[in-house]
Design brief:
- The chain has 488 residues and is α/β, with parallel strands linked by helices.
- It has 14 helices and 25 strands.
- It has a domain of 93 residues: 2-Layer Sandwich (GMP Synthetase, Chain A, domain 3).
- The strands form 6 sheets. It has a 9-stranded mixed β-sheet, with helices on both faces. A 4-stranded parallel β-sheet has the order 4-3-5-6, with helices on both faces.
- Helix 2 packs across helix 3 and helix 6 packs across helix 7.
- The protein is globular.
- The protein starts with 6 loop residues before the first helix and ends in a 6-residue tail after the last helix.
């Protein structure tokens, strides 16, 4: 039997058909309904002429339809291409074109993301036309069961790269299914267990931990948009037991306060995206004393690499723990490499980039500099590359620099991440003007807003006479970060 991300849906539709799989506000979807609707979507896509291996772009926030779309695309033997709802049309053009997506399933409320964009021939709109619901109603309900190899990609997830344009990370069925089972074992997912999809499901970790509950027979409630009070109310109302968060969420929860909500159902919290600062992790453990706190480390390309478990949370404060299930690590010159079944298949149509980050014996570089203590626990020291992580979103500085360079009067620019208490990092741009030119920083930010999604916008712009460089002429971004205070 080949592993497939549709497998768990099929299994629990037989075992517990009336159990609730997905909650979205007042809407409830049983496993029977999830199986039926995903099969209908698969048949609608196949009837439109799509064939095994074709790619289907999905532009959707956290809502009930996301798990059924992922399962339906898989049942049809197709490959999902998640789109970030915060993309600009220019960014959408690139991803749709590079992925050669033949279909698009989108929330009609997110139409601005693809405004003016040439769309695939087959489009279905949730809450709009052509109607997603009408297509499901007209399609057959028999599972088409298009055969795929478990090492085939179920998804191409676009992630920011250091060269500017995002890269398409090919993630296999095998990678994600093993992640789901490991997550169930580690973080309390499975039959009868209740979780909340907090992180956006278009993102690798958001999907992995939002879909894992239904793959393993539990219930997931959809948090439509981030709001600390809304999350706390949902935990109380749905009696959630396991919740995945990023450090930004913890910062905002601390700022908002927990109030008098009954959060006693919560027994597991797990964090990713960036290391939790020591004081913040202490606050989490003190505020949720009944919950085991895990801190995991990974990437879209590598999957989960390490986990610091509750027993070590205080003993190894600041550590991301030890290698996760079935994971080998190698540290070369301080740089972390890993090998596991969770690794990507490679970057879509970019063998050079794939080869640049993998070794002949199958290890993948993280691009992160780490240290390992005498007990084998890992600590992230620094990122080898200059990637910025703001609110859990990876941002390629070069992409922002190229947009700034197109602004009149700009000679060059360097973009770095500066520390921020709320977001982890915020984007800062250091700009050199052409001789005799004056650069209006407010106008520059407006220029950036037209081409970049919100998290990528510079929050701090400084006009400087020169950029620091080493003897080889390379810009010393570390000097920029060290020499400037965090923006407020």
């Amino acid at each position: 039997m080949q592993l497939s991300i549709a497998g768990g849906i099929r299994e629990f539709a037989r075992a517990t058909p009336e159990a609730i799989a997905v909650i979205d506000g007042d809407r409830r979807l049983s496993y029977r309904g999830l199986d039926d609707r995903s099969s209908r979507l698969a048949n609608a896509l196949l009837a439109a002429g799509l064939r095994r291996g074709d790619r289907v772009a999905v532009l959707l926030g956290n809502r009930m339809e996301y798990p059924e779309i992922a399962a339906g695309v898989s049942k049809a033997g197709l490959v999902m291409v998640p789109l970030n709802p915060r993309m600009t049309p220019a960014e959408s053009v690139y991803v749709l074109g590079h992925s050669r997506s033949r279909a698009l399933i989108m929330d009609a409320a997110l139409a601005a993301t693809v405004e003016g964009v040439d769309l695939p021939d087959f489009v279905l709109a949730v809450g709009g036309a052509p109607s997603y619901e009408a297509a499901l109603a007209a399609a057959g309900s028999a599972d088409p069961r298009v055969a795929v190899d478990e090492r085939d990609p179920f998804c191409v997830a676009y992630t920011a790269g250091t060269t500017g344009n995002p890269k398409g990370v090919m993630i296999s069925h095998r990678s994600r299914v093993l992640t789901f089972y490991g997550a169930a074992l580690e973080w309390g997912l499975g039959p009868g267990r209740r979780s909340i999809a907090v992180a956006p499901m278009y993102h690798g970790a958001g999907f992995a931990f939002g879909y894992a509950p239904v793959f393993t027979g539990g219930t997931v409630a959809m948090l439509r948009s981030w709001d600390p009070e809304r999350l706390l109310a949902m935990i109380e109302r749905e009696r959630a037991q396991s919740v995945f968060l990023v450090p930004t969420h913890a910062h905002m929860l601390r700022a908002a306060g927990l109030g008098t909500r009954d959060l006693s159902s919560l027994d597991t919290l797990y964090f990713n995206a960036a290391a939790l600062p020591g004081p913040l992790k202490e606050w989490v453990m003190e505020s949720f004393p009944q919950a085991g706190v895990h801190e995991l480390y990974g990437s879209t390309e590598a999957g989960i690499v390490a986990n610091c478990r509750p027993a070590d949370a205080r003993r190894k404060l600041g550590s991301v723990g030890t290698p996760w299930f079935m994971t080998e690590i190698r540290i070369v010159g301080g740089e972390l490499f890993s090998r596991s079944p969770y690794l990507m298949n490679g970057y879509l149509d970019d063998p050079a980039a794939t080869a640049a980050c993998t070794t002949p014996d199958g290890f993948l570089t993280s691009g992160d500099i780490v240290r390992q203590d005498e007990d084998g626990y890992l600590y992230i020291v620094d990122r080898k590359k200059d990637m910025i992580i703001s609110g859990g979103v990876n941002i390629a500085p070069r992409e922002v620099e190229e947009v700034i360079a197109r602004f009149p009067g700009v000679a060059e620019a360097a973009v770095v991440g500066l520390p921020d208490d709320r977001w982890g990092e915020t984007v800062a741009a250091f700009v050199v003007a052409l001789p005799g030119a004056a650069v209006d920083t407010e106008a520059l930010v407006r220029h950036c807003r037209a081409a970049l999604a919100g998290p990528k916008l510079p929050r701090h712009v400084e006009i400087v006479p020169t950029l620091p460089r080493n003897a080889a002429g390379k810009i010393l971004k570390r000097s920029l970060k060290e020499g400037h205070a965090s923006p407020r």
